[in-house]
Amino acid sequence: MQKLTNKEEEIMQIIWKLEKAFVKDVMAEIQTKKPHYNTLSTIVRNLEEKGYVGHQAYGNTHQYFPVVTKEAYRKKYMASAIQHYFNDSYKNVISFFAKEEKISVDDLKEIINLIEKEQ
Fold it and tell me: Measured between alpha carbons, how far apart are the two ends of the chain, in Å?
């Protein structure tokens, strides 16, 4: 599974959300500056070449659908980010978010409760 560019990830988020989409459907969902239709079409075809989406042909038009699940992508690349940026330590990840004030004490307590229930 190849890593996606930021723009490819943005497009995949839309395709995951829509589940099946024509390029025009993806274009309608883009919240940032909209690319030219042909550029978007090229990005979607690149996603297909990378194995992230498949398509159903309707004449000259293609309806795209995800082949890789959002969960599979998240699992692969979160693990990679944790390995490369946090020395493969989930404790370092939580510590980072706590220091950046992105996670509260209540959130941490809730996480601890979830972990204790699993054991």
Answer: 32
